[in-house]
Design brief:
The structure holds two protein chains of two kinds. Chain A has 15 helices and four strands. Chain A is mostly helical. Chain A is globular and about 65 Å long. In chain B, the strands form four sheets. Chain B has a two-stranded antiparallel sheet. Classes of the chains: A mainly alpha, B mainly alpha.
Chain lengths: 376, 518
């Protein structure tokens, strides 16, 4: 019994770690948000250079968080890794592809003799900036809307459609979350630019863009959240593990886990506050609030996806194949070993914070772009 | 060549993974080694305050930056391909394999990515010592990340520290330290990172030699050669030592791979080491596979026995010892292993059926079988053999294994000579005049890349048909997706990686021609 409780605790612990990584990832996709506007936001080359270099100095954090998110998911919930990656093939490959072209685009774009030309690498940045957040949003939406798979007795996955994940793009709720994540990334990107770049004209343009992006974000986000609250969910019996369909499951989760509801509402309010003070009070610090709000909102959405006896990866094809944090997790030993490793995370966050501030202690200016030796 | 590829899902999935891994390994070793060379150069700068060393560091850092991102880009694909293309594998061993990947992310990747930003952009933003610390942390982070992925790979070669859980139908970790300090992992890590150090040293040496040929940047070139020569010589000696250790370990834990590396069909005492050999087909066959023999060979008598067992009388196992068995050595035949593997699989199937039909007596009795030590040692250790059709299928491609191993060894000795010569000529003060050597150094830049790829070719092809030695064949590990999907992504990645490689080489050449900034 002790072992059972311990494993259950660790399964929750690791779902929290994965959720934290996911929420940090969505915040850090401000880099992608900024990239998605490199053709439309700047008015001249100088502004473009400042935007690209502002985002370029942070791209590795987003990338590393994505890699660690994948690694942590693999280590703690390997059945999700094998099921979703091995079945929803095209969604994950498209995400991978978009991040692969990003990694080299920054380093290569302004280097002489880069063969493909700066425009191509800028297109890579734009594609990653637009597709990356959108597809990650679509993939995460399937945590709530489900996917078409069946597991056999050996836990091997059989995908029930020939589209291997692309069918997720046909579900309006998935699309809504995809676009919500994209526009949230763009909002954070704009606010990061406002906070980091010293260029009045660019800041003014960014603020104008912020209004349209915020409205679009709110439309998609509200559509997704409202449909989520009133939709059916997938409940797992805590004793038998049997999966059943439950009406208003996610609304019940919020009600039954009021702390999560408070976190979610705080997150949403914080995002709106960050946008509001930037538009109405000309504050430069909106990113602090939208960043914190993004982390809280995404974190709480992950908690209602996996906690309170909920299937975090429901199967629409074979209900009993649905994944929960109990049936998809690693063994007690592995979860425990990984828990010890996770104790180093606060130290990691501290040195990231320190190094981040060391680089960001001065705003990016046009002069710096002209004098910096290592620039993108 | 393309006609020989079997257009099956398994083969295309293998091709896609091999493509990604091969490209990944074109970029990563330079990162592993050059990061330390940068750290050493910058340390000299901070210690001496000589601005020339700063200029040298920044020049090599520019080349490091061009290469760095593309290694990361191909790396993320590899990580996710375990899931997308090898999902059955991901479940069967995810409990063990996933942990090193997560540790890699938490401990190594963040270290690397956080401080690489300081290293690139912090020259005028942080003080000298903090910048130097960042450069060292990038080097440590890069090499730590190599540690964890190699631990994972080593476990596939020699699975340890786990038990099979019939309820979840997967292997589960029971000893993390056994996984981390697996002898194969230790050998592999040391051999791999030292080969990265060697490659980077050759890169620096070769480019510096080019400057001397062109009579440009002579001071910078000589200083770089000094660092690359010392670091390269030490690394190449370490590569030789760890390579020897690695081969010895393989002879114990993957004897079939070892016999293939040596093209040794019949085991023997007083076995000679083939220093040079050319293989040809014979009339003899093992099952449907044609045996090879040497059309020509230069052999050092008894040395293989000495190297593997400590003396000339030591018996080195051949392929036939494993296919037909060898009672004296206590080796059972592959046919028997297949039978034992099938027995283990049948027990698992019976257990699953008992669970499905709620047969509580059957469940209790069959579950106990899996914890029985005799069952584990006699039957379950051969679980993967249940998927082997014919005994000869466990023999990897002997030709590829033999040539890749021996060519790699020959190159290893050439590297020791090149670095020794570089240091000698530098010491004599005549290196600028020795055009023949400078050209050799320049033209040798691709050789460590070739050696590295050969090493991985041997590692991965030499363990076929296994994805996890003796426990799971590659064909059982693959994701059940459409072959067309895999072919499409293979082509997509092939075009992308090739384009990026051409682009990188072009940028690199331009930067080298431009030279360090004054």
């Amino acid at each position: 019994m002790t072992a059972m409780i311990s494993q259950l605790f660790l399964q929750h612990y690791w779902w929290i770690i994965v959720s934290i990584l996911a929420s940090l990832l969505v915040f850090l996709m401000f880099v992608q948000g900024g990239q998605s506007m490199i053709f439309s936001l700047p008015e001249n080359k100088s502004q473009k250079a400042m935007i690209v270099n502002t985002m370029g100095r942070k791209w590795e954090f987003t990338f590393t968080t994505l890699v660690t998110f994948g690694g942590a998911f693999f280590a703690s919930f390997p059945l999700f890794y094998s099921t979703s990656f091995g079945g929803a093939y095209w969604v994950w490959i498209a995400i991978l592809f978009s991040f692969t072209i990003q990694a080299i685009a920054y380093e290569f774009r302004s280097k002489p003799n880069n063969i493909l030309g700066q425009k191509t690498f800028d297109l890579f940045l734009f594609l990653n900036g637009s597709l990356g957040p959108f597809l990650i949003g679509v993939a995460v939406a399937t945590f709530f809307t489900g996917a078409m798979f069946k597991l056999n007795v050996m836990n091997q996955v059989h995908w029930a459609t020939a589209w291997y994940g692309l069918e997720a793009l046909l579900n309006p709720r998935n699309l809504a979350l995809g676009f919500a994540v994209l526009f949230l990334a763009r909002i954070n990107g704009l606010l990061y630019i406002i906070n980091t770049i010293d260029d009045d004209e660019l800041i003014s343009r960014s603020k104008k863009r912020l209004i349209n992006n915020s409205i679009t974000f709110l439309i998609f986000f509200l559509f997704f959240v409202i449909s989520l609250l009133f939709s059916k969910g997938f409940a797992a019996d805590p004793m038998t593990g049997t999966i059943s369909v439950e009406k208003f499951k996610y609304m019940h989760n919020f009600i039954q886990m009021p702390v999560v509801l408070i976190l979610f509402l705080t997150g949403v309010v914080s995002v709106l506050f960050g946008i509001g003070i930037t538009i109405f009070r000309k504050s430069m610090s909106g990113i602090r609030f939208t960043g914190a709000g993004t982390v809280l909102s995404v974190f709480s959405l992950f908690l209602i996806a996996g906690f309170n006896g909920t299937s975090f990866y429901p199967s629409l094809f074979d209900l009993q194949s649905s994944l929960t944090i109990r049936n998809a997790s690693s063994s007690l030993f592995t979860l425990k070993t990984m828990m010890y490793v996770s104790f180093i995370i606060p130290l990691v966050l501290v040195y990231i914070w320190y190094a981040w501030n060391a680089i960001n202690n001065n705003k990016i200016t046009e002069e710096e772009m002209n004098s910096e030796e290592h620039k993108y | 060549m393309i006609d020989n590829i079997d257009m099956s899902l398994v083969d295309w999935s293998r091709a896609q993974f091999a493509l990604t891994a091969a490209y990944h390994w074109l970029f990563v070793p330079l990162t592993l080694g050059l990061s330390f060379i940068l750290a050493i150069m910058e340390t000299i700068y901070v210690k001496t305050g000589n601005e020339e060393w700063k200029r040298i560091t920044r020049f090599w850092m520019t080349l490091f930056g061009i290469n760095f991102a593309i290694g990361i880009a191909t790396g993320i694909i590899l990580e996710f391909e375990f899931g997308t293309n090898w999902s059955n594998y991901s479940w069967f061993v995810g409990d063990i394999f996933g942990a090193p990947l997560a540790v890699e992310g938490i401990l190594a990747f963040f270290l690397e990515s956080t401080f690489v930003a300081v290293m690139f952009f912090g020259w005028n933003k942080v003080n000298k010592k903090f910048h130097l610390l960042s450069t060292w942390l990038v080097a440590i982070g890069a090499n730590l990340s190599a540690l964890w992925i190699l631990v994972a790979n080593a476990w596939m070669q020699h699975p340890v520290g786990m038990v099979f859980n019939p309820d979840t139908a997967r292997n589960e970790m029971v000893n993390f330290w056994a996984v981390l300090f697996n002898q194969v992992a230790v050998d592999k890590f040391l051999h791999t990172i030292s080969s990265g150090f060697l490659l980077a040293s050759m890169f620096v040496l070769g480019i510096s030699a080019w400057y001397l040929i062109r009579k440009r940047e002579e001071q910078i070139a000589k200083k770089s050669i000094m660092i690359a020569g010392v670091f390269g010589l030490l690394s190449s000696l370490m590569v030789a030592y760890t390579g020897d250790e690695s081969a010895r370990t393989i002879s114990k834990v993957q004897p079939v791979k070892f016999a293939s590396m040596e093209a040794l069909y019949e085991g023997k005492s007083n076995a000679g080491l083939i220093a040079f050999g050319v293989l040809k087909d014979t009339d003899k066959k093992i099952g449907e596979k044609t045996e090879k023999e040497f059309a020509f060979k230069i052999q050092i008598p008894g040395l293989l026995s000495v190297l593997t067992g400590g003396d000339r009388d030591s018996y080195v196992q051949g392929l036939s010892d494993h296919i037909s068995g060898n009672e004296k050595l206590g080796l059972i035949s592959t046919s028997e292993k297949i039978q034992n593997g099938k027995h283990a699989r049948d027990i698992l199937t019976s257990y699953k059926n008992a669970r499905l039909s709620n047969d509580t007596i059957g469940i209790a009795s069959l579950k106990g079988v899996f914890s029985d030590i005799e069952f584990q040692n006699k039957y379950f250790r051969y679980f993967g053999y249940a998927s082997v059709d014919k005994p000869e299928d466990v023999i990897p491609n002997v030709t590829v294994s033999f040539y890749s191993f021996h060519l790699m060894v020959v190159l290893g000795f050439i590297f020791i000579m090149i670095f020794s010569a570089a240091l000698y000529l530098l010491y004599k003060g005549t290196i600028s005049d020795q055009k023949w050597f400078l050209w050799i150094a320049l033209l040798s830049i691709p050789l460590p890349y070739i050696a590295g790829e050969l090493g991985w070719l041997l590692t991965e092809l030499g363990r076929q048909p296994w994805i996890i030695q003796d426990l799971m064949t590659v064909s059982k590990a693959v994701s059940q997706i459409s072959t067309g999907s895999v072919i499409t992504t293979f082509i997509l990645f092939a075009v992308l990686f090739t384009g990026l490689l051409i682009s990188e080489v072009s940028i690199m050449v331009k930067q080298i021609k431009t030279g360090p900034k004054h």
